[in-house]
Design a protein that fits this description.
Helix content: 25-40%
Number of domains: 1
Distance between the termini: 24 Å
CATH superfamily: GIY-YIG endonuclease
Largest sheet: 4 strands, antiparallel
Radius of gyration: 12 Å
Number of strands: 4
Number of helices: 3
Shape: globular
CATH class: Alpha Beta
Length: 91
Amino acid sequence: MSTKKIKFNKNEIEKLPNNKPIVYKILSDSGKNNYTGVAQRGRVQDRLKKHLGNIPGANIQIEQMKSIKEARLKEANIIKRSKPKYNERGK
């Protein structure tokens, strides 16, 4: 599936589709991955808005997935590989 990169703010988040689960990365100004997560179909915008003000970031990179199971597997691989600063350790 394709990836999309947007600014990490409320207006941009509200434009995102809610029709499929996603894997997302909250990225710093320099492009470093600060946090990786998943959002279920129908909860994409709500999930991302919860991070505003809690996790520093300039951009969000999202990738729509076919299923939440597929999204969680990809999330686990990204966290294992890049060890984002704001993800809980041991996840």
